[in-house]
Amino acid sequence: MAESTLAAFTAIWGAPADGVVRTAPADQLLDNAWKNLPSWGIVPFESLDPKWKVLTVDGQSPIRKDFDPTKYPLQINFALQSSQPSNLQTLKLPQSNRDASKLTTLIMTGTTSLVNGIAYQMEVKGIDYPARDIGDMLRQADILHVSNKTSFAPNCPPPNPAERWPRCSDPKYIQLLADVGVKVVELTGPHILDDGVGSFLYTLNLYKQNNMQTYGGGANLAEARQALLIENHGNKIAFIGCNAGEPPQPLATDFSPGVNPCDYAQLAAEIGQVRAQGYLPIVTFQYKEGYSPQVMPWQSVDFRKAADAGAVIVSGSQAHAPLQMEFYKGTFIHYGLGNFFYDQMGNQPPDPTNPNLPPQPAQRYEFIDRHVFYDGKYISTELLTAMLEDYARPRPMTTDERAAFLTAYFGYSGWLPLIPTPAPEQTPTLYPLLDFKPLPTYTPIPKGTPTP
Length: 452
Prior knowledge:
By secondary structure, this protein is of the alpha/beta class. The chain has a domain at about 100-410: Purple Acid Phosphatase, chain A, domain 2, CATH 3.60.21.10. About 20% of the residues lie in helices and about 20% in strands. The protein has eleven helices and 16 strands. The strands form three sheets. Strands 1, 2, 3, 4, 5, 14, 15 and 16 form an eight-stranded mixed sheet that branches.
């Protein structure tokens, strides 16, 4: 801690035991902590930085929406006295260095696709079933992001959990997204046109009807490239997304709908433009698929281009298994969060081309990143973790699961010695299809069908 912090807490707690507290200049604390892991620090709220992990104390965390400062022990009260009381009337001091009205929480999630196995479970157990264990956590966010890879279609056939490739989702499934409070939908996924242009245009209108804003895809290239600008509690956030996946991809053109193709010069210009307007850019990629937790070299090159251009957060939406993360020039880059509302339960086999690679993670592992903004600055990220159950339902990891998972991924990221995460037990079968009836004949939406 800084000398000033030590002096303040010594005044209320007494002097610390010998050797348990080290001091450093305030502007050197963070670097010293990272160079001497494991380390803990005490810093003022206004000194928070994403490279600090904010710890919960007595169930309270100042970066969360339900924070109760009266129950938080790491606080110091102050008062002023003057021999001339009139002098105090000219002072305009804040009540606190934390103003809840200036705090915005954003939850970013990985791959969502409400088709096949997860859709079947929703039909059997209810549309809200996938959010049963994490819905309350998601609803606490001011802004909730999902990357939905498939379109809705009014005549989408009943889900078939044995089908491999997604095609479309029943429009009633959007209620799942509405119930958990989704505000932002990323449209960079490779399957948004699998059911045709009509279904995609229908989907764009369906999102609007449900007060969900979109980016990264659109009715034409100009719309797909347009940054989504959001202001919340005084914080200005811009979402920009593009698709750099393996061809073929459903890319938008000047005259046809689809996803925004990654043009890195155009992307840098867009980032610079929104920064000039006072927005904090968050850039998301639908990138080439890879199942190793350690990223491909060219992926880090491309993601860092967005950071160099001024993005404060860069996130990978393509990953079906989580990828490593890093801080690069002050930007938090998470190369892949893994699945979110999805139906993959498999474990990946070891990579035969790299026998030195540790056992690879299961597709069941999920990162859910909670980013915190305060008074126009990005100040913190909380890594929430979930495990997928029943081909449909993420649940919070147990304490042991989370410890092993984070230890492994901090190892993959070069922050800790690498200790591979043990893969969850394989599920040998999908689920019993005792009463599952054959699919009806599927007919695409006719041209000219009105959209909602």
